[in-house]
Amino acid sequence: MGKQGHGGVRVNKSSVGAVAAVTVFLLPIAILLGIPVFLGGSPATAADCKAPSASVSGSKTPGAVGAFSGVQLENAAAIMKAAKALALPASAQLLGVQAAIGESTLRVIDHGDGAGPDSRGLFQQRANGAWGSYKDRMDPTISATNFFKALQNLPGWEDLEPSVAIHRVQRNDNPNHYAQFRGPATEIVKALGGEAASGIDASGACPAAGGSVVGQLAGKWVHPMDGAIMTSGYGPRPAPAGTAGGVLANFHYGIDFAMPGRAGTIVAVTDMKIVKVRNLEGLFGTGVTGQTMDGKLTIGMYHLEAGSVKVKEGDVVSAGTPLGTEGATGNVTGRHLHMEFFPGALPNPMVPTNATTNPGPILKEKGVL
After folding, report:
1. CA Rg, the chain, in Å?
2. Please, are residues 293 and 61 in contact by the beta-carbon 8 Å criterion?
3. 144-148 contact pairs (CB < 8 A, 24+)
4. Please, what is the Cα angle at 366 between 364 and 369, to 5 degrees?
5. Residue 108 has what DSSP assignment?
6. Coil, strand or helix: which one is 272?
7. Domain limits of the chain?
């Protein structure tokens, strides 16, 4: 597709590995197959989380945030201020910084690329009349303001997965291009926002009222169901007999575990914030979805026994915390756990709308498998 419309992009720069390789099917396919589609946007609390003020001066402001420093942080602050001036929530600030990292590494670039040689500035906005003059596109505040105005014109932007929301403004060739920049964007917004931003998570949501913290968060990884065996891996496979068929069933978007002889207890595979609890919803039955504390991964665990879920949305749980009981709810022929990994912090992900990545290599790296 390349650059088109009024978006300015750098095409095909994603380095998320398996994300670029996974097949993402069109939304109408899911609808035709009767699959409930969740667009993966910020939860309701995100819209109520006010944008913090941003500062790059004073003794408490870090000299660097990860790989970003100096003028890059100044530009990030300009983006955050532009969102706040438009009375947008903190989730919009995250989107703006995330987009600019993906387009320019938070630098005002005075050149484009092969797909859009007329692209300029923090957001690589094109000279097509939609983004103002050359001077406007090279001005951090004005270019950010124009990005946010375009975002506001996107119906339901708050309910879209962040990379998809940015993609629909920027028109990148790869809608998942921006997912890899969610973690760094969150770190920057929290660092520049000071105390007012300390509780914001990678979804853009403020802490849920009454959310419990369970266990000691130590960064450990454990088996999701101790004693279980892996019964199906990630990748292409025929639809299992007795389950709903169709094109979606010919690719296994996660890995499966089953406990021999009895129903196992499913636990948090690592420290995570619970962002979604599903109860007997469509093909995936009852399940729990959590974000890792660094915002780099979202983990979905499905087909739990109905009524067995032990956590609530907004809870923060440590590795090994019981989440529920292995079950056979949804589109299954027998009791097991189906687990999916989504790159980035996605408050409500679901295939095929959101791309997955193979959990196997990650679990092996963490010493789980």
Report:
1. 21
2. no
3. 144/78, 144/79, 144/82, 144/83, 144/96, 144/100, 145/82, 145/85, 145/86, 147/79, 147/82, 147/96, 147/99, 147/123, 148/82, 148/83, 148/86, 148/88, 148/92, 148/96
4. 35
5. -
6. strand
7. 18-24+39-197, 213-365
**Token pair belonging to 139:** 């001005």
Beta carbons of 173 and 12 less than 8 angstroms apart: yes
Residue given tokens 């004073």 in the structure block: 58
Segment 208-216 mean pLDDT: 69
Least confident window among 3-7, 86-90, 309-313: 3-7
In CATH, the number for domain 18-24+39-197 is 1.10.530
pTM more than 0.70:
no
Q: Is the pLDDT of residue 222 over 70?
A: yes
- Which DSSP letter does residue 283 get? G
Cα–Cα distance between 117 and 2 in angstroms, integer? 11
Q: How far apart are CA 165 and CA 156, in angstroms?
A: 9
DSSP 144-178: HHHHHHHHHTSTTGGGB-HHHHHHHHH--SSTTTT
Closest CA to 221 of 273, 275, 269, 262: 269
CATH architecture of the domain covering 213-365: Distorted Sandwich (2.70)
The residue behind tokens 């917004």 is: 189
Q: Containing H/E element for 69?
A: strand 68-69
- The residues with which 141 forms a beta bridge, in sequence order, are none
Q: What is the pLDDT of residues 116-149, one digit of tens each?
A: 899 999 999 999 999 999 999 999 999 999 999 9
pLDDT band at 238 (very low <50, low <70, confident <90, very high): confident
Average pLDDT for the chain: 82
The pair of three-digit structure tokens given for residue 143, joined into one six-digit string: 């270019």
